[in-house]
Amino acid sequence: MIIPIYWTLSMTVFVNKNLKGQPWSVPEGRALFQFFGSFLSKAFLVLAVITIGFTLYNNYYTKHHVKRHAIYNEKKLFARREAIKDFYTSKFGERAYRRNEIRYYVVTPENNFEIKAIDKIYSKFEGAKL
Question: Which of 38, 58, 62, 69 has the fewest CB atoms within 10 Å around its CB?
Fold first, then answer.
């Protein structure tokens, strides 16, 4: 790890000092190093500009196109949400009681869900006009 760092610094930063073990002593080596340095610097800048540009475009598109168009029926969504809340309340009690006061709960066999209980609740709203 030390040798590549020493070689790089000896050929760039300490170029005027006569240090031992320099990897090249001809000007082509320095020119090659400077070429790669400038190329990678320019590539980084181009990629940074492209990345920032795509990020800004994606944020603009999300803000002005995706969020403006609802992909669901809000009335149906709220009706289904209320129906499932009522179902949970009838099975397990009030929401505040379930969330705040219960630390351990054993479901009795009478309170177990049927296999398609939630599907049955949601299927009531499939054909309904709200």
Answer: 69
Residue entry with tokens 């400077």 = 34
Q: Given 3-state DSSP classes, what are the helix, strand and coil percentages for the chain, each rounded to the nearest 5? A: 65, 0, 35
DSSP classification of residue 17: S
Q: Maximum Cα–Cα distance for the chain, whole Å?
A: 89
Q: Is 74 exposed, middle or buried (0-12, 13-18, 19+ CB in 10 A)?
A: exposed
Q: Tokens 């031992």 label which residue?
A: 20
Q: Where are the domains of the chain?
A: 2-66, 74-123
Q: State pTM to two decimals.
A: 0.43
CA dihedral of residues 77, 79, 82, 87 (deg, nearest 10): -100
> How confident is the model over 3-57, as pLDDT tens digits?
777 767 766 666 666 655 555 666 676 777 788 889 999 999 999 999 999 999 9
